[in-house]
Amino acid sequence: MSYISSSEALIGKLQRISDLGEADLAILRGISIQEKEFQPNHNLVLEGDKPSQSFVVIDGLVGSTKYTGEGKRQITSFFVIGDIPDLHGLHLSIMDCTFSTLMPSRIGFMRHSTLRAICEQHPRIATAFWRSTLIDAAIYREWVTNVGRREALTRMAHILCELICRLRAAGRIEDHVADIPITQAALGDALGLSTVHVNRMLQELRRKGLIATSGSRLQALNWPDLVRAGDFDTTYLHQRNL
Amino acid sequence: MSYISSSEALIGKLQRISDLGEADLAILRGISIQEKEFQPNHNLVLEGDKPSQSFVVIDGLVGSTKYTGEGKRQITSFFVIGDIPDLHGLHLSIMDCTFSTLMPSRIGFMRHSTLRAICEQHPRIATAFWRSTLIDAAIYREWVTNVGRREALTRMAHILCELICRLRAAGRIEDHVADIPITQAALGDALGLSTVHVNRMLQELRRKGLIATSGSRLQALNWPDLVRAGDFDTTYLHQRNL
DNA sequence: CGCGGGGTTGAGGTCAATCAATCAATGTGG
DNA sequence: CCACATTGATTGATTGACCTCAACCCCGCG
Questions:
Q1: pLDDT per position as a tens digit, A50-62
Q2: CB-based contact B82:B9 (threshold 8 Å)
Q3: Nucleotides on strand D with an atom closer than 7 A to protein CB?
């Protein structure tokens, strides 16, 4: 996979979801971004924090997670390249969830003060950021539905479709082959399932010829049928080029 | 219950979540709002629509709902007085969920063109609106967790706590007594449970002395224990006065 | 070579769904 | 005013999807 810069990741994502002029892009390119690499399962922001910066995913995979009083973990969404998982922190002072890496990831940190200044002076960019948080919300809505009303196999197929679509939009997929070293435990926490059941559902998807896995490689062997099996419709991702 | 005007509902909500000056309030009071009454289970906006207006809940209860391919309904969030359920439509052209009334409700419609003009000229108000959509997103996140990782009884208690908190913030509750004629079927669709099981969980909460119901009245008899039973923490509501 | 993390497998248990009635409250037309 | 339909709440019996527990395997690594 090719290395891309933090600005490219950010700008690519914003362009994917909104119309920005060359002037806006120049402003975005000027944002100072502090890059850092992290191992899997590293907590980037903790529930209860009051951060003064937000971060963009430059490479890898990040999850927003919550823990119940019983200590069970729920991943409430995935974030791929270009996404700004905690952008809501810009206007909600206290974090209500934890963000952690789900695989080795490169992260870029941006100061809230910088982002706020840009939003004030460039309404077009402010709208793009707002829209980004609205798409995150649309994905949360879909996840509520997925976890609440779909059975395990459908749920599994659905989340794989989402991951593949989002990674493809971000240019990280060729021919339905994704390189995501995500553990079955993480998938379980995202789907509200046990790891044992995740394992069995993956087996069934393989048995049906819908996917193939080898190591961290995930391949959609039969995209139309996988979409059907996952009751998947891209509308909620609000991308332009799907 | 006292009747309030559409402006009051809207302004009350925005003041609850952000700092607005008198000048901003005057602008908000000037928004033209078309009021209309609806019966329960009326679809206000349909999935797939491209609306040119957003609506504020003046009285009643609205749910954002999605349907799976199998026809199962999932309510992904409730909206109470002052909330603007489809404010995200301002920047996401296609609706990815349906909004419908869950009880007799009064709704106020506002044109997108008006809202956009206000946002451009009054950044403080724009931020307040943005913040409103961010709180909606925080609630979706909590619901993913609730549906994904909590067992039925906890889930039930949790949603009741949320409803009571939000209604109280909106001034619709005195002494933990709420007047919500919401059906058990709707609760089931919000929790990802069958109506039969909703019924049994409500019975257990009554048996434990945590709640009392009579007709559409819901009363929290033992708030601290209900909060404990629901694994409930108000942080995610991002209200100031809780 | 032993250790640990992740994946896989089998057996048994349980929570919640489904199915099928019944009941209470409300409304409606004759 | 009463027969009847409708909507929502309630109950019991049965079924099934998914969880838990407990192994075991595989592979990379110190």
A1: 999 999 999 999 9
A2: yes
A3: 8-13, 17-22
